[in-house]
């Protein structure tokens, strides 16, 4: 995730090499990667605020949700177009969507309200 989202290399447990920031600690990785890691490793069943996640996190959210139930909150429309097919229950409306066009249609319908 760190390599894919932040374009940074994990050198060791306390050192990440960022092409933008140089050597950084794990505390300085992006909010999107931190949120994805919580989604992937937390087993509490919490709702995760995915609003810190950019479009480059969408495929990771779908990958994580494929292996465990995941509830996220979004305050913007995320571009899931490159994530492939997925199943998501839109809690705002109770409708299940199976791909990006269906998600986008439902998300925009929610925004209009």
Task: Give a topology summary.
Blueprint: H1 2-6, E1 9-12, E2 15-18, E3 22-24, H2 31-41, E4 47-49, H3 58-67, E5 71-73, E6 88-90, E7 95-97, H4 100-112
Parallel strand pairs: 4-5
Antiparallel strand pairs: 1-2, 2-3, 6-7
Describe this structure in words.
By secondary structure, this protein is α+β, with helices and mostly antiparallel strands. It is elongated, with a radius of gyration of 15 Å. β1 (about 10) and β2 (about 15-20) form a beta hairpin. Helices cover about 35% and strands about 20% of the residues. The protein contains 4 helices and 7 strands; from the N terminus they run αβββαβαβββα. It has helices at about 1-5, 30-40, 60-65, 100-110, and strands at about 10, 15-20, 20-25, 45-50, 70-75, 90, 95.
Short description:
With 113 residues, the protein is of the alpha+beta class.
Main sheet record: 3 strands, antiparallel
Strand % is: 15-25%
Radius of gyration: 15 Å
| Average pLDDT reading | 94
Which spans have pLDDT < 50 for at least 5 consecutive residues? none
Please report the number of helical segments. 4
Order of the strands making up the biggest sheet: 1-2-3
Distance between the termini: 34 Å
* Helix-strand makeup class: alpha+beta
Please tell me what the overall shape is: elongated
Helical residue percent?
Answer: 25-40%
């Amino acid at each position: 995730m760190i390599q894919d989202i932040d374009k940074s290399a994990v050198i060791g447990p306390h050192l990440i090499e960022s092409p933008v920031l140089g050597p950084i600690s794990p505390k300085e990785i992006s909010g999107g990667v931190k949120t994805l890691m919580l989604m992937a490793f937390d087993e509490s069943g919490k709702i995760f605020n995915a609003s810190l996640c950019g479009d480059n996190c969408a495929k990771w959210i779908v990958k994580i949700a494929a292996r465990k139930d995941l509830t996220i909150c979004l305050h913007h429309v995320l571009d899931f177009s490159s994530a492939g097919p997925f199943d998501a229950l839109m809690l705002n409306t109770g409708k299940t969507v199976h791909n990006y066009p269906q998600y986008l249609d439902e998300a925009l319908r929610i925004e209009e309200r």
